[in-house]
Amino acid sequence: APGHQPEFVAYPAEFAERYRAAGYWRGETFGRMLRDRAAAHPDRIAIVDPGPAPDGSTTRRWTYGELDGRADRMAAGLLALGVGKGDRVVVQLPNVAEFFEVVFALFRVGALPVFALPAHRDSEIRHFCAFTEAAAYVIPDVAGGYDHRELASRVRSEVPTLRHVLVAGDPGPHTALADVPTADAGAFDAAYAGPEPHELAFLQLSGGSTGVPKLIPRTHDDYIYSLRGSNEICRVDEHSVYLCALPAAHNFPLSSPGTLGALYAGARVVLAPRPSPDVAFPLIEREGVTLTGLVPPLALVWTEAAAATPYDLSSLEVLLVGGAKFSEEAARRVRPALGCTLQQVFGMAEGLVNYTRLDDPEEIIVGTQGRPISPGDEIRVVDDEDRDLPVGETGHLLTRGPYTIRGYWRAPEHNATSFTPDGFYRTGDVVRLTEDGYLVVEGRAKDQINRGGEKVAAEEIENHILAHPSVHDAAVVSMPDPYLGERTCAYVVLREGAEPVRSAALKKFIRGRGLADYKVPDRVEFTDAFPQTGVGKVSKKDLRAAIAAELARKG
Ligand code: J2J
Protein backbone atom coordinates (compact mmCIF):
# COMPACT_ATOMS: atom_id res chain seq x y z
CA ALA A 1 0.00 0.00 0.00
CA PRO A 2 1.25 3.54 -0.59
CA GLY A 3 2.91 4.93 2.48
CA HIS A 4 3.28 1.48 4.01
CA GLN A 5 6.51 1.41 5.97
CA PRO A 6 7.08 -1.99 7.56
CA GLU A 7 10.35 -1.05 9.23
CA PHE A 8 8.80 1.74 11.20
CA VAL A 9 6.83 1.16 14.40
CA ALA A 10 3.95 3.59 13.88
CA TYR A 11 2.16 5.38 16.70
CA PRO A 12 -0.93 3.33 17.61
CA ALA A 13 -4.05 4.83 15.96
CA GLU A 14 -5.57 5.76 19.30
CA PHE A 15 -2.49 7.81 20.22
CA ALA A 16 -2.20 9.42 16.79
CA GLU A 17 -5.82 10.54 17.08
CA ARG A 18 -5.20 11.92 20.54
CA TYR A 19 -2.11 13.86 19.40
CA ARG A 20 -4.01 15.34 16.46
CA ALA A 21 -7.03 16.24 18.59
CA ALA A 22 -4.78 17.98 21.11
CA GLY A 23 -3.32 20.10 18.30
CA TYR A 24 0.19 18.66 18.65
CA TRP A 25 0.22 17.17 15.17
CA ARG A 26 -1.05 19.65 12.63
CA GLY A 27 -0.45 17.85 9.37
CA GLU A 28 2.62 19.86 8.41
CA THR A 29 5.60 18.60 6.40
CA PHE A 30 9.08 20.10 6.12
CA GLY A 31 8.74 20.55 2.38
CA ARG A 32 5.57 22.59 2.66
CA MET A 33 6.82 24.42 5.75
CA LEU A 34 9.71 25.94 3.80
CA ARG A 35 7.42 26.72 0.85
CA ASP A 36 5.04 28.61 3.17
CA ARG A 37 7.82 30.61 4.83
CA ALA A 38 9.30 31.50 1.45
CA ALA A 39 5.89 32.66 0.23
CA ALA A 40 5.32 34.75 3.35
CA HIS A 41 8.75 36.44 3.44
CA PRO A 42 10.88 35.54 0.40
CA ASP A 43 13.55 38.20 1.03
CA ARG A 44 14.22 37.54 4.68
CA ILE A 45 17.60 35.88 5.35
CA ALA A 46 17.33 32.21 6.26
CA ILE A 47 20.93 30.96 6.27
CA VAL A 48 24.21 32.75 6.89
CA ASP A 49 27.28 30.67 6.04
CA PRO A 50 30.42 32.66 6.91
CA GLY A 51 32.67 30.47 4.76
CA PRO A 52 36.41 30.28 5.38
CA ALA A 53 37.36 34.01 5.47
CA PRO A 54 37.23 35.59 8.95
CA ASP A 55 36.72 39.11 7.50
CA GLY A 56 33.31 38.17 6.15
CA SER A 57 34.30 38.37 2.48
CA THR A 58 33.26 34.79 1.72
CA THR A 59 29.96 34.95 3.58
CA ARG A 60 26.93 33.52 1.79
CA ARG A 61 23.46 34.74 2.77
CA TRP A 62 20.50 32.80 1.43
CA THR A 63 17.04 34.24 1.70
CA TYR A 64 14.01 32.05 2.35
CA GLY A 65 13.09 32.45 -1.31
CA GLU A 66 16.55 31.36 -2.39
CA LEU A 67 16.69 28.37 -0.06
CA ASP A 68 13.24 27.30 -1.26
CA GLY A 69 14.25 27.62 -4.92
CA ARG A 70 17.50 25.76 -4.34
CA ALA A 71 15.70 22.96 -2.51
CA ASP A 72 13.28 22.66 -5.45
CA ARG A 73 16.00 22.48 -8.07
CA MET A 74 17.99 20.03 -5.97
CA ALA A 75 14.84 17.93 -5.47
CA ALA A 76 14.26 17.82 -9.21
CA GLY A 77 17.90 16.87 -9.74
CA LEU A 78 17.72 14.08 -7.17
CA LEU A 79 14.59 12.66 -8.80
CA ALA A 80 16.39 12.79 -12.14
CA LEU A 81 19.23 10.76 -10.57
CA GLY A 82 16.65 8.21 -9.47
CA VAL A 83 16.67 9.16 -5.78
CA GLY A 84 13.04 9.19 -4.76
CA LYS A 85 10.49 8.68 -2.05
CA GLY A 86 11.54 6.33 0.74
CA ASP A 87 15.18 6.08 -0.45
CA ARG A 88 17.81 6.61 2.21
CA VAL A 89 20.62 9.13 1.72
CA VAL A 90 23.49 9.35 4.19
CA VAL A 91 24.25 13.04 4.73
CA GLN A 92 27.64 13.84 6.24
CA LEU A 93 28.21 17.56 5.89
CA PRO A 94 29.86 20.08 8.19
CA ASN A 95 28.09 23.35 9.07
CA VAL A 96 27.66 24.66 5.52
CA ALA A 97 24.67 26.12 3.70
CA GLU A 98 24.47 23.08 1.41
CA PHE A 99 23.37 21.01 4.39
CA PHE A 100 20.00 22.78 4.30
CA GLU A 101 19.70 22.76 0.51
CA VAL A 102 20.21 18.99 0.46
CA VAL A 103 18.14 18.15 3.50
CA PHE A 104 15.13 20.19 2.37
CA ALA A 105 15.40 18.71 -1.14
CA LEU A 106 15.34 15.22 0.41
CA PHE A 107 12.39 16.20 2.62
CA ARG A 108 10.60 17.42 -0.47
CA VAL A 109 11.02 14.22 -2.48
CA GLY A 110 10.38 12.11 0.60
CA ALA A 111 13.83 10.53 0.59
CA LEU A 112 15.19 10.06 4.11
CA PRO A 113 18.37 11.81 5.20
CA VAL A 114 20.46 9.61 7.51
CA PHE A 115 22.29 12.13 9.68
CA ALA A 116 25.94 11.14 10.02
CA LEU A 117 28.35 13.29 12.04
CA PRO A 118 31.44 14.87 10.47
CA ALA A 119 33.66 12.81 12.79
CA HIS A 120 32.36 9.47 11.50
CA ARG A 121 34.76 7.35 9.48
CA ASP A 122 34.79 4.07 7.54
CA SER A 123 33.32 1.83 10.18
CA GLU A 124 30.32 4.07 10.95
CA ILE A 125 29.66 5.23 7.38
CA ARG A 126 29.95 1.71 5.96
CA HIS A 127 27.39 0.57 8.51
CA PHE A 128 24.95 3.43 7.83
CA CYS A 129 25.15 2.93 4.06
CA ALA A 130 24.90 -0.86 4.19
CA PHE A 131 22.26 -1.10 6.90
CA THR A 132 19.96 1.51 5.33
CA GLU A 133 20.77 0.29 1.78
CA ALA A 134 21.47 3.93 1.01
CA ALA A 135 21.10 5.14 -2.57
CA ALA A 136 23.40 8.12 -2.10
CA TYR A 137 26.00 9.58 0.25
CA VAL A 138 26.55 13.35 0.52
CA ILE A 139 29.95 14.63 1.67
CA PRO A 140 32.25 17.65 1.74
CA ASP A 141 35.45 17.34 -0.31
CA VAL A 142 37.87 17.93 2.55
CA ALA A 143 36.74 18.82 6.06
CA GLY A 144 38.96 19.29 9.09
CA GLY A 145 41.90 18.16 6.98
CA TYR A 146 40.21 14.86 6.11
CA ASP A 147 39.42 13.84 2.53
CA HIS A 148 35.89 12.45 2.54
CA ARG A 149 36.07 11.54 -1.15
CA GLU A 150 38.51 8.72 -0.44
CA LEU A 151 36.31 7.38 2.33
CA ALA A 152 33.36 7.55 -0.08
CA SER A 153 35.25 5.59 -2.75
CA ARG A 154 36.02 2.83 -0.25
CA VAL A 155 32.44 2.65 0.99
CA ARG A 156 31.07 2.73 -2.53
CA SER A 157 33.14 -0.30 -3.51
CA GLU A 158 31.67 -2.21 -0.57
CA VAL A 159 28.01 -1.17 -0.62
CA PRO A 160 26.26 -2.16 -3.87
CA THR A 161 23.11 -0.07 -3.30
CA LEU A 162 25.16 3.14 -3.14
CA ARG A 163 24.67 4.61 -6.61
CA HIS A 164 25.72 8.23 -6.02
CA VAL A 165 28.33 10.11 -4.04
CA LEU A 166 27.53 13.82 -4.08
CA VAL A 167 30.25 16.25 -3.04
CA ALA A 168 29.93 19.80 -1.75
CA GLY A 169 33.02 21.24 -3.41
CA ASP A 170 35.58 19.55 -5.67
CA PRO A 171 34.03 16.17 -6.55
CA GLY A 172 37.18 14.21 -7.43
CA PRO A 173 35.93 10.92 -8.94
CA HIS A 174 32.35 11.56 -7.75
CA THR A 175 29.52 13.99 -8.65
CA ALA A 176 29.56 17.64 -7.63
CA LEU A 177 26.50 18.67 -5.65
CA ALA A 178 26.44 21.78 -7.83
CA ASP A 179 25.83 19.56 -10.88
CA VAL A 180 22.79 17.83 -9.39
CA PRO A 181 20.17 20.61 -9.44
CA THR A 182 18.29 21.07 -12.68
CA ALA A 183 18.83 24.41 -14.38
CA ASP A 184 15.09 24.86 -14.88
CA ALA A 185 13.80 26.91 -11.94
CA GLY A 186 10.30 25.43 -12.14
CA ALA A 187 11.51 21.86 -12.61
CA PHE A 188 10.29 20.32 -9.38
CA ASP A 189 6.78 19.25 -10.24
CA ALA A 190 4.37 20.91 -7.85
CA ALA A 191 2.04 17.95 -8.37
CA TYR A 192 4.71 15.50 -7.10
CA ALA A 193 3.21 13.49 -4.29
CA GLY A 194 5.68 14.16 -1.50
CA PRO A 195 5.58 12.57 1.93
CA GLU A 196 2.51 12.69 4.14
CA PRO A 197 2.82 14.33 7.58
CA HIS A 198 2.57 10.96 9.37
CA GLU A 199 5.33 9.46 7.26
CA LEU A 200 9.06 9.42 7.98
CA ALA A 201 11.13 12.55 7.46
CA PHE A 202 14.60 11.19 8.34
CA LEU A 203 16.65 8.71 10.32
CA GLN A 204 18.53 10.22 13.26
CA LEU A 205 21.39 8.44 15.04
CA SER A 206 21.08 7.13 18.54
CA GLY A 207 23.85 7.79 21.03
CA GLY A 208 23.85 4.05 21.30
CA SER A 209 24.76 1.44 23.82
CA THR A 210 25.01 -1.50 21.43
CA GLY A 211 27.63 -2.87 19.04
CA VAL A 212 26.30 -0.85 16.12
CA PRO A 213 24.41 2.46 16.39
CA LYS A 214 20.64 2.21 16.05
CA LEU A 215 18.64 4.47 13.76
CA ILE A 216 15.78 6.61 14.92
CA PRO A 217 12.83 7.11 12.56
CA ARG A 218 11.17 10.52 12.99
CA THR A 219 8.00 11.66 11.24
CA HIS A 220 7.20 15.13 9.93
CA ASP A 221 4.29 15.46 12.35
CA ASP A 222 6.16 14.48 15.48
CA TYR A 223 9.39 16.37 14.82
CA ILE A 224 7.69 19.56 13.73
CA TYR A 225 5.68 19.46 16.94
CA SER A 226 8.91 19.28 18.95
CA LEU A 227 10.15 22.35 17.04
CA ARG A 228 6.99 24.34 17.64
CA GLY A 229 7.03 23.41 21.32
CA SER A 230 10.73 24.28 21.63
CA ASN A 231 10.27 27.64 19.92
CA GLU A 232 7.56 28.61 22.35
CA ILE A 233 9.63 27.62 25.38
CA CYS A 234 12.85 29.22 24.08
CA ARG A 235 10.95 32.27 22.74
CA VAL A 236 12.18 31.87 19.20
CA ASP A 237 10.38 34.14 16.76
CA GLU A 238 11.10 35.82 13.41
CA HIS A 239 13.52 38.24 15.11
CA SER A 240 15.69 35.47 16.54
CA VAL A 241 19.17 34.69 15.25
CA TYR A 242 20.28 31.13 16.06
CA LEU A 243 23.99 30.31 15.99
CA CYS A 244 24.60 26.68 15.03
CA ALA A 245 27.87 26.00 16.83
CA LEU A 246 27.60 22.21 17.30
CA PRO A 247 27.58 19.85 14.29
CA ALA A 248 24.37 20.67 12.41
CA ALA A 249 23.27 17.05 12.01
CA HIS A 250 23.11 16.38 15.74
CA ASN A 251 19.62 16.35 17.20
CA PHE A 252 20.32 19.13 19.73
CA PRO A 253 21.39 21.90 17.29
CA LEU A 254 18.92 20.55 14.73
CA SER A 255 15.82 20.73 16.89
CA SER A 256 16.24 22.14 20.39
CA PRO A 257 15.13 24.60 19.05
CA GLY A 258 18.04 24.52 16.67
CA THR A 259 18.29 25.36 13.03
CA LEU A 260 15.02 23.70 12.05
CA GLY A 261 13.17 25.43 14.89
CA ALA A 262 14.62 28.75 13.74
CA LEU A 263 13.56 28.12 10.14
CA TYR A 264 10.10 27.08 11.33
CA ALA A 265 9.84 30.45 13.09
CA GLY A 266 11.08 32.40 10.04
CA ALA A 267 14.22 33.33 11.98
CA ARG A 268 17.83 33.47 10.85
CA VAL A 269 20.38 30.65 11.13
CA VAL A 270 24.08 31.49 11.38
CA LEU A 271 26.45 28.57 10.81
CA ALA A 272 29.66 28.46 12.83
CA PRO A 273 32.34 26.35 11.16
CA ARG A 274 33.75 25.63 14.63
CA PRO A 275 32.34 26.23 18.12
CA SER A 276 35.44 27.81 19.69
CA PRO A 277 35.19 31.39 21.00
CA ASP A 278 37.68 32.71 18.40
CA VAL A 279 35.21 31.71 15.66
CA ALA A 280 31.88 32.05 17.46
CA PHE A 281 32.34 35.35 19.33
CA PRO A 282 33.05 37.50 16.23
CA LEU A 283 30.01 35.87 14.57
CA ILE A 284 27.81 36.71 17.56
CA GLU A 285 28.83 40.34 17.33
CA ARG A 286 28.67 40.62 13.56
CA GLU A 287 25.37 38.77 13.06
CA GLY A 288 23.59 39.84 16.24
CA VAL A 289 23.11 36.26 17.45
CA THR A 290 20.33 35.96 20.06
CA LEU A 291 20.59 32.29 21.05
CA THR A 292 22.75 29.22 20.67
CA GLY A 293 23.25 25.74 22.11
CA LEU A 294 26.40 24.20 23.55
CA VAL A 295 27.54 21.04 25.31
CA PRO A 296 28.90 21.58 28.86
CA PRO A 297 32.65 21.55 28.06
CA LEU A 298 32.15 24.29 25.46
CA ALA A 299 29.94 26.28 27.78
CA LEU A 300 32.85 26.24 30.25
CA VAL A 301 35.28 27.45 27.60
CA TRP A 302 32.91 30.23 26.52
CA THR A 303 32.33 31.31 30.11
CA GLU A 304 36.06 31.63 30.67
CA ALA A 305 36.79 33.33 27.34
CA ALA A 306 33.98 35.89 27.75
CA ALA A 307 35.85 37.73 30.52
CA ALA A 308 38.65 38.90 28.22
CA THR A 309 36.95 39.04 24.83
CA PRO A 310 37.04 42.25 22.78
CA TYR A 311 33.79 41.18 21.06
CA ASP A 312 30.38 42.52 21.99
CA LEU A 313 28.22 39.57 23.06
CA SER A 314 25.33 41.69 24.31
CA SER A 315 22.90 40.46 21.62
CA LEU A 316 23.02 36.97 23.16
CA GLU A 317 19.85 36.42 25.20
CA VAL A 318 19.80 32.65 25.75
CA LEU A 319 22.48 30.00 26.04
CA LEU A 320 21.13 26.45 25.89
CA VAL A 321 23.36 23.86 27.52
CA GLY A 322 22.73 20.12 27.23
CA GLY A 323 23.89 16.80 25.86
CA ALA A 324 25.56 15.92 29.15
CA LYS A 325 25.10 16.95 32.75
CA PHE A 326 26.02 20.58 33.39
CA SER A 327 27.32 20.94 36.92
CA GLU A 328 25.46 23.35 39.15
CA GLU A 329 28.70 25.17 39.90
CA ALA A 330 29.41 25.78 36.20
CA ALA A 331 25.77 26.68 35.57
CA ARG A 332 25.94 29.48 38.12
CA ARG A 333 28.76 31.15 36.22
CA VAL A 334 26.92 31.49 32.90
CA ARG A 335 24.77 34.54 33.54
CA PRO A 336 27.47 36.68 35.20
CA ALA A 337 30.03 35.80 32.51
CA LEU A 338 27.95 35.95 29.35
CA GLY A 339 25.14 38.25 30.44
CA CYS A 340 22.45 35.91 29.10
CA THR A 341 19.91 33.46 30.49
CA LEU A 342 21.02 29.86 30.86
CA GLN A 343 18.55 27.30 29.65
CA GLN A 344 19.36 23.70 30.52
CA VAL A 345 18.15 21.14 28.01
CA PHE A 346 18.01 17.40 28.60
CA GLY A 347 17.01 15.78 25.35
CA MET A 348 17.49 12.70 23.25
CA ALA A 349 17.29 11.94 19.54
CA GLU A 350 14.63 9.32 20.34
CA GLY A 351 12.27 12.12 21.35
CA LEU A 352 11.67 13.57 24.82
CA VAL A 353 13.20 17.00 25.37
CA ASN A 354 13.17 18.87 28.71
CA TYR A 355 13.97 22.53 29.20
CA THR A 356 14.26 24.84 32.17
CA ARG A 357 11.97 27.79 31.45
CA LEU A 358 13.42 31.25 30.82
CA ASP A 359 11.52 32.78 33.74
CA ASP A 360 12.23 29.93 36.17
CA PRO A 361 13.88 30.88 39.49
CA GLU A 362 17.68 30.70 39.40
CA GLU A 363 17.70 27.61 41.65
CA ILE A 364 15.68 25.63 39.09
CA ILE A 365 17.76 26.90 36.17
CA VAL A 366 21.08 25.90 37.74
CA GLY A 367 19.88 22.89 39.71
CA THR A 368 17.66 20.89 37.32
CA GLN A 369 17.65 19.64 33.74
CA GLY A 370 14.21 21.08 33.04
CA ARG A 371 10.77 19.64 32.42
CA PRO A 372 9.17 18.16 29.29
CA ILE A 373 8.08 20.25 26.31
CA SER A 374 4.58 18.88 26.18
CA PRO A 375 1.65 18.11 28.48
CA GLY A 376 1.39 15.01 26.24
CA ASP A 377 4.80 13.75 27.44
CA GLU A 378 4.34 10.87 29.89
CA ILE A 379 7.15 10.42 32.39
CA ARG A 380 7.71 7.43 34.65
CA VAL A 381 10.52 6.92 37.15
CA VAL A 382 10.77 3.22 37.99
CA ASP A 383 12.89 0.69 39.88
CA ASP A 384 14.69 -2.29 38.32
CA GLU A 385 11.38 -4.18 38.12
CA ASP A 386 9.53 -1.36 36.31
CA ARG A 387 7.58 -0.41 39.46
CA ASP A 388 6.79 3.28 39.75
CA LEU A 389 8.75 5.07 42.47
CA PRO A 390 7.43 7.83 44.70
CA VAL A 391 8.19 11.37 43.53
CA GLY A 392 11.69 12.40 44.62
CA GLU A 393 13.22 8.93 44.46
CA THR A 394 15.93 8.13 41.95
CA GLY A 395 15.21 5.55 39.27
CA HIS A 396 15.03 4.70 35.57
CA LEU A 397 13.36 7.23 33.29
CA LEU A 398 10.72 5.83 30.94
CA THR A 399 8.82 8.06 28.54
CA ARG A 400 6.10 8.04 25.92
CA GLY A 401 4.62 10.98 24.06
CA PRO A 402 3.75 12.88 20.89
CA TYR A 403 7.34 13.16 19.61
CA THR A 404 9.00 10.07 21.15
CA ILE A 405 9.55 7.07 18.88
CA ARG A 406 7.83 3.71 19.42
CA GLY A 407 10.73 1.73 18.01
CA TYR A 408 14.10 1.92 16.29
CA TRP A 409 14.28 1.46 12.53
CA ARG A 410 14.53 -2.20 11.45
CA ALA A 411 15.40 -3.38 14.94
CA PRO A 412 12.67 -5.65 16.30
CA GLU A 413 14.97 -7.45 18.77
CA HIS A 414 16.30 -4.22 20.25
CA ASN A 415 12.82 -2.81 20.38
CA ALA A 416 11.66 -5.69 22.55
CA THR A 417 14.03 -4.53 25.29
CA SER A 418 14.31 -0.78 24.61
CA PHE A 419 10.55 -0.26 24.94
CA THR A 420 7.97 -1.51 27.42
CA PRO A 421 5.07 -3.55 26.01
CA ASP A 422 2.87 -0.45 26.26
CA GLY A 423 5.29 1.68 24.27
CA PHE A 424 7.37 3.55 26.83
CA TYR A 425 10.95 4.18 25.71
CA ARG A 426 13.58 3.07 28.22
CA THR A 427 15.93 6.07 28.13
CA GLY A 428 18.71 4.38 30.12
CA ASP A 429 18.94 7.58 32.16
CA VAL A 430 18.71 7.54 35.94
CA VAL A 431 16.77 10.54 37.19
CA ARG A 432 14.85 12.08 40.05
CA LEU A 433 11.65 14.08 39.68
CA THR A 434 11.21 17.18 41.84
CA GLU A 435 7.90 18.19 43.46
CA ASP A 436 7.46 20.81 40.71
CA GLY A 437 7.87 18.22 37.98
CA TYR A 438 11.46 19.02 37.00
CA LEU A 439 13.97 16.28 36.19
CA VAL A 440 17.41 15.99 37.73
CA VAL A 441 19.75 13.62 35.91
CA GLU A 442 21.55 11.51 38.53
CA GLY A 443 23.27 8.92 36.39
CA ARG A 444 22.94 6.36 33.68
CA ALA A 445 22.09 2.68 33.46
CA LYS A 446 22.91 2.20 29.76
CA ASP A 447 26.35 0.93 28.79
CA GLN A 448 27.51 4.20 27.32
CA ILE A 449 30.16 6.82 28.01
CA ASN A 450 29.06 10.45 27.66
CA ARG A 451 32.23 12.22 26.65
CA GLY A 452 31.17 15.84 27.05
CA GLY A 453 28.02 15.24 25.01
CA GLU A 454 29.61 12.85 22.52
CA LYS A 455 28.17 9.43 23.15
CA VAL A 456 30.34 6.31 23.03
CA ALA A 457 28.72 2.87 23.14
CA ALA A 458 30.98 0.62 25.21
CA GLU A 459 30.14 -2.51 23.21
CA GLU A 460 31.03 -0.88 19.91
CA ILE A 461 34.52 -0.01 21.15
CA GLU A 462 34.97 -3.37 22.85
CA ASN A 463 34.33 -5.04 19.49
CA HIS A 464 37.06 -2.97 17.86
CA ILE A 465 39.52 -3.86 20.64
CA LEU A 466 38.62 -7.55 20.45
CA ALA A 467 39.66 -7.53 16.79
CA HIS A 468 43.29 -7.20 17.92
CA PRO A 469 45.05 -10.59 17.75
CA SER A 470 46.68 -10.22 21.18
CA VAL A 471 43.47 -9.31 22.99
CA HIS A 472 41.50 -11.90 24.93
CA ASP A 473 38.85 -9.65 26.48
CA ALA A 474 37.95 -5.96 26.77
CA ALA A 475 35.65 -3.82 28.90
CA VAL A 476 35.18 -0.11 28.23
CA VAL A 477 34.04 2.15 31.07
CA SER A 478 33.85 5.83 31.89
CA MET A 479 36.38 7.61 34.07
CA PRO A 480 35.81 11.03 35.63
CA ASP A 481 37.27 14.04 33.86
CA PRO A 482 37.18 17.66 35.06
CA TYR A 483 36.70 19.06 31.54
CA LEU A 484 34.61 16.51 29.61
CA GLY A 485 32.79 15.08 32.63
CA GLU A 486 33.74 11.60 31.49
CA ARG A 487 36.37 10.01 29.34
CA THR A 488 36.74 6.43 28.15
CA CYS A 489 38.94 3.85 29.80
CA ALA A 490 39.45 0.45 28.17
CA TYR A 491 40.36 -2.46 30.43
CA VAL A 492 42.08 -5.15 28.41
CA VAL A 493 43.04 -8.76 29.17
CA LEU A 494 45.71 -10.05 26.80
CA ARG A 495 45.80 -13.59 25.47
CA GLU A 496 48.07 -15.93 27.33
CA GLY A 497 51.42 -16.09 25.61
CA ALA A 498 50.43 -13.35 23.18
CA GLU A 499 52.83 -10.73 21.95
CA PRO A 500 52.72 -7.93 24.57
CA VAL A 501 51.02 -4.71 23.35
CA ARG A 502 51.55 -1.18 24.53
CA SER A 503 48.70 1.16 25.21
CA ALA A 504 49.74 3.53 22.39
CA ALA A 505 49.96 0.67 19.90
CA LEU A 506 46.49 -0.55 20.82
CA LYS A 507 45.03 2.94 20.39
CA LYS A 508 46.73 3.17 17.03
CA PHE A 509 45.26 -0.18 16.04
CA ILE A 510 41.77 0.99 17.02
CA ARG A 511 42.15 4.29 15.17
CA GLY A 512 43.38 2.34 12.15
CA ARG A 513 40.09 0.46 11.99
CA GLY A 514 38.49 3.71 10.90
CA LEU A 515 36.16 5.13 13.49
CA ALA A 516 35.34 8.57 14.85
CA ASP A 517 38.30 9.94 16.75
CA TYR A 518 36.26 10.65 19.90
CA LYS A 519 35.63 6.91 20.26
CA VAL A 520 39.30 5.95 20.58
CA PRO A 521 39.81 5.10 24.28
CA ASP A 522 41.48 7.88 26.24
CA ARG A 523 43.25 5.35 28.40
CA VAL A 524 44.06 1.66 28.27
CA GLU A 525 44.61 -0.43 31.40
CA PHE A 526 45.94 -3.97 31.16
CA THR A 527 44.75 -6.48 33.72
CA ASP A 528 44.85 -10.24 34.29
CA ALA A 529 41.14 -10.71 34.87
CA PHE A 530 37.96 -8.66 35.25
CA PRO A 531 36.07 -8.34 38.52
CA GLN A 532 32.81 -10.31 38.34
CA THR A 533 29.30 -9.61 39.49
CA GLY A 534 27.32 -12.19 41.47
CA VAL A 535 26.01 -13.71 38.24
CA GLY A 536 29.45 -13.94 36.65
CA LYS A 537 29.26 -10.90 34.39
CA VAL A 538 32.03 -8.30 34.17
CA SER A 539 31.45 -5.79 36.93
CA LYS A 540 31.80 -2.45 35.18
CA LYS A 541 30.86 -0.79 38.44
CA ASP A 542 34.03 -2.17 40.03
CA LEU A 543 36.13 -1.19 37.01
CA ARG A 544 34.77 2.38 37.14
CA ALA A 545 35.53 2.54 40.85
CA ALA A 546 39.05 1.19 40.27
CA ILE A 547 39.98 3.73 37.61
CA ALA A 548 38.37 6.59 39.55
CA ALA A 549 40.39 5.61 42.64
CA GLU A 550 43.56 5.35 40.56
CA LEU A 551 43.01 8.84 39.14
CA ALA A 552 42.21 10.28 42.58
CA ARG A 553 45.35 8.71 44.04
CA LYS A 554 47.50 10.35 41.37
CA GLY A 555 45.72 13.67 42.00
C1 J2J B 1 22.47 14.98 31.44
N1 J2J B 1 22.44 14.10 30.42
C2 J2J B 1 22.00 14.55 29.23
C3 J2J B 1 21.60 16.77 30.16
C4 J2J B 1 21.34 14.80 27.17
C5 J2J B 1 18.71 18.32 23.14
C6 J2J B 1 19.75 18.19 24.04
C7 J2J B 1 20.53 17.05 24.04
C8 J2J B 1 20.28 16.01 23.14
C9 J2J B 1 21.15 14.80 23.18
C10 J2J B 1 19.23 16.14 22.24
C11 J2J B 1 21.55 15.87 29.04
N2 J2J B 1 22.05 16.26 31.33
N3 J2J B 1 21.21 18.03 30.07
O1 J2J B 1 18.92 15.18 21.36
O2 J2J B 1 17.42 17.42 21.35
C12 J2J B 1 22.22 12.53 27.77
C13 J2J B 1 21.20 11.53 28.30
C14 J2J B 1 20.32 11.30 27.07
C15 J2J B 1 21.34 11.31 25.98
C16 J2J B 1 20.77 11.62 24.61
C17 J2J B 1 18.44 17.31 22.23
N4 J2J B 1 21.16 15.99 27.75
N5 J2J B 1 21.85 13.92 28.04
O3 J2J B 1 22.16 14.77 23.87
O4 J2J B 1 20.56 11.46 21.54
O5 J2J B 1 21.87 10.36 28.65
O6 J2J B 1 20.71 13.74 22.44
O7 J2J B 1 19.60 10.08 27.12
O8 J2J B 1 22.82 12.60 21.65
O9 J2J B 1 22.26 12.34 26.37
O10 J2J B 1 21.79 11.81 23.69
P1 J2J B 1 21.49 12.36 22.24
Could you characterize what this model shows?
The strands form seven sheets. This protein has a nine-stranded mixed sheet, sandwiched between helices. Strands 4-3-5-8-9 form a five-stranded parallel sheet, with helices on both faces. A four-stranded antiparallel sheet has the order 19-20-21-22, with no helix packed on it. It has 17 helices and 27 strands. By secondary structure, the protein is an alpha/beta fold. Strand 25 and strand 26 form a beta hairpin. Helix 5 (122-132) crosses helix 6 (148-158). It has a domain at 448-554: ANL, C-terminal domain (GMP Synthetase, Chain A, domain 3, 2-Layer Sandwich), CATH 3.30.300. The chain starts with 12 loop residues before the first helix and ends with a helix. The chain binds ligand J2J. Ligand J2J binds at residues 207, 251-252, 255-256, 322-325, 344-349, 353, 369, 427, 429, 441, 444, 450, 455. Its EC number is 2.7.7.58. Residues 460-537 form the AMP-binding enzyme C-terminal domain.
